[in-house]
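Q: My labmate handed me this sequence with no annotations at all. I'd like to see what the chain might look like in three dimensions before we decide whether it's worth expressing. Could you predict it?
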Amino acid sequence: ELQNVDREMTPWLIVPMHAPLYNSNYAHYMEGESMCVVFEKWFVKYKVDL
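A: Here is what I predict for the chain of 50 residues:
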């Protein structure tokens, strides 16, 4: 669905997630790594803002 977003009509693209892809908290070490492998390339390709 990200490729279908009209960025003229929706200039900010925000994807809410339960856990962050990146964090520096040792209690959650590597927690977002598996999500990052799957989602990061899409977020970069489709210029997700947040």
